[in-house]
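thread from #wetlab-drylab

HS: before we spend reagent money on co-crystallization trials with protoporphyrin IX containing FE, can we at least see a predicted complex? here's what I'd submit
DV: go for it
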Amino acid sequence: MSIITLPYLSAVCHEALRIYPTQLFTFPRLVESPIEVMDYELNPGTILIGNIYSTHQREDLYPKPKEFQPERFLEKQFSPYEFLPFGGGSRVCIGGNFALFEMKLVLATILSSYQLALVSQRPERPKFGGLLGYPASGVKMIIHGRHQHQQQSKLSIVA
Ligand code: HEM
């Protein structure tokens, strides 16, 4: 089974990026010529910044938005205007696919090898600094066991 195509692992990564996108806003865009966007007439010189965090918290798109529900990504395909952890348009993050690949690889490798428990039973809180959001106390965990592999792992990296 390919790590990259595991649907629930992908859904967990997407939901983590939805609920706490590490970058809360896109980089700014400068309007160069008059344009109308969603009934707003925008003049040259106007600066626009996409609010990733607030879009991902919209109740109409993500019912109970504060809840971690990876299943939403299995039930529905979100448009680039609804789910945008890596920004969008021609200046979209160039490392987005690489970052997702890395997330899945690290999670699958650790979770298939070790049994883990959270050090703190209290929910991890986000901390926001500048444009970025991250776990306030680093999600500290302890290893309390190893998974015994009877045979060589059936997980592979590429499809
Ligand atoms: C979870 C990891 C990451 C997140 C959430 C993230 C998020 C973002 C966001 C929101 C933007 C702004 C896009 C926009 O304004 O529309 C951006 C831009 C960018 N990111 Fe990432 N990024 C991540 C990882 C990476 C990695 C691994 C690289 C490089 C290998 C990278 C390189 C860049 C570059 C170069 C830009 C500027 C693109 C441009 O302005 O044309 N990012 N990223």
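DV: The two ends are 8 Å apart (CA to CA).
HS: ok that's useful, forwarding to the group
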